[in-house]
Write a structure and sequence with these properties.
3-stranded antiparallel beta sheet, 11 helices, about 15% strand, rod-shaped
């Protein structure tokens, strides 16, 4: 059964439609043949009964028209008149049982056109009927009536052959028309399949001309829309990949420059102090303890500076506190760090009611978006006050939550026709990857960044910060 279904499914659609039409024609032909056979059998039986019913009136009429005929002459006359009857054969016998007239060879049977199987299908069971011939109350013989339906069956056969030929020609014409029509109707589907194959091969320039059919025209329109959307998505991914590569190169260049500018002098100073300590130790006189203490203090200060810069670089690459302490604490620490590095700007934050964490990806996205927004506010907007807040909202009766993040500043705001840099593109891509929304608008004064991230129930942690730490003073 499964193999038959597989064979049927492997056939082209046009072939399957033609097979269905042929099956319907075959069923219709079988039904028509059955109805025709039943009607033909009934018609043959009625016709034979009607013909047989004429035999008795014919005998009576012949006897009445004859004037004092002899029995032999009367029987011969009846035999001649019976030869003209159709659908029955009548044999005349005298009173002694002798056949009247000559027994002619049955040449007509060879002239019948209906095949034997059709005759057997239509013909009723053979019947005989004896009719006594009585003149003036005296029986002079008898007439034996035998059913002979071949003539009627020949007429039915001729009608069936004519009807079958006409039906065959009509069905062949209909099948030819349907084959052509199905080919024209299914041609757009073949073009659609070719287009889908091109899409599968990442050829997003595929385009379908709308066919005449309204339904297929809608499918072609949707296909063209999907191909255009895929092409735009590929271009956007290409731009994003280039931006990511550029961002990686810029970040690597910036880190290399900071390593050269910050760590290079520190390492040189360490090397110089170490050489000075070595010279003091190699002197012939007793080492000057004051100089050794001064060099040790300088080395300790340089090491502390290196450690601070190292922590800053590591925190930029990956905030080490994320996942270890509550998210709100990490954000407050971020504000405090910005306050130390930009003492002329006031940084404020409100992160009440946040959970301890929302998964590494969500926490890092919130952290990076606030970090980048405050960097832009100071670097490009020359803001003197930046406020950031994050809160969680939950609809009544639903376990899913939504995280709302907003960063405002009082800087210069957005200039008309401002471009989208790597920082804004990175934030937007991070938020949209979490099925969230990102918006950047003017706030009069300054600018405002609004971010909404949906939080699935199984992602949010059960432990929430009931008493978040107080924000550090700027």
């Amino acid at each position: 059964m499964h193999r038959r279904a597989s064979i049927w499914a492997s056939l082209p659609t046009r072939t399957r439609l033609v097979v269905v039409v042929l099956a319907i024609d075959l069923i219709a032909a079988i039904v028509c043949c059955a109805v025709m056979v039943l009607n033909a059998r009934s018609a043959v039986k009625v016709e034979m009964n009607a013909t047989r019913a004429t035999v008795e009136p014919l005998v009576a009429d012949t006897i009445r028209m004859a004037r004092n005929p002899s029995p032999e002459t009367l029987l011969h006359t009846l035999d001649l008149r019976f030869q003209t009857l159709r659908h029955v054969r009548v044999a005349v016998f005298d009173a002694q049982g002798e056949r009247i007239g000559f027994v002619l060879p049955n040449l007509r049977r060879d002239d019948h056109t209906a095949p034997a199987w059709f005759v057997a299908l239509i013909a009723p069971p053979p019947e005989q009927h004896e009719l006594p011939i009585v003149v003036n109350g005296n029986p002079i013989g008898k007439a034996v009536v035998t059913a002979e339906p071949l003539d009627e069956i020949d007429e039915v056969w001729g009608y069936a052959v004519s009807l079958s030929l006409a039906s065959l020609i009509l069905n062949l014409a209909v099948l030819a028309a349907l084959t052509i029509a199905f080919g024209r109707v299914l041609k757009p589907l073949e073009r659609l399949a070719d287009g889908l194959t091109r899409l599968e091969r990442h050829d997003y320039t595929a385009h379908l001309d709308p066919p005449a059919s309204r339904e297929l025209a809608v499918i072609a329109e949707r296909f063209n829309s999907v191909a255009g959307a895929l092409s735009e998505a590929r271009d956007a991914n290409g731009r994003l990949n280039r931006q990511l590569l550029t961002a990686q190169d810029d970040e690597g260049r910036r880190i290399a420059l900071e390593l050269h500018d910050e760590f290079g002098p520190c390492l040189f100073a360490l090397e110089a102090n170490a050489a000075s300590v070595a010279r003091i130790a190699e002197g012939e006189s007793a080492p000057d303890r004051g100089k050794l203490a001064s060099r040790a203090a300088e080395i300790g200060g340089i090491v502390g500076q290196v450690q601070a810069r190292n922590r800053e670089l590591l925190n930029r690459l990956r905030p080490h506190a994320l996942g270890q302490v509550p998210l709100a604490d990490c954000l407050y620490l971020l504000l405090a760090d910005f306050g130390r590095r930009h003492p002329g700007t006031v940084f404020e934050g409100r992160f009440d009611g946040l959970a301890r964490g929302y998964s590494d990806l969500v926490d890092l996205t919130v952290f990076r978006c606030i970090q980048e927004s405050m960097t832009n506010a100071v670097r490009h907007g020359s803001a003197t006050r930046v406020s950031a807040q994050a809160r969680e909202s939950r609809e009544p009766g639903r376990s899913a939550a939504t995280l709302h993040v907003e960063i405002r500043d009082d800087g210069a705001g957005l200039t008309p026709g401002h471009g989208t840099g790597l920082g804004l593109s990175g934030m937007r891509e991070r938020v949209e990857a979490l099925d969230g929304t990102f918006a950047l608008d003017n706030a009069a004064p300054g600018a405002v960044v609004r971010i909404v991230i949906p939080i699935e129930p199984e992602v949010a942690e059960d432990v929430r910060s009931e008493h978040p730490p107080a924000p550090p003073s700027s």
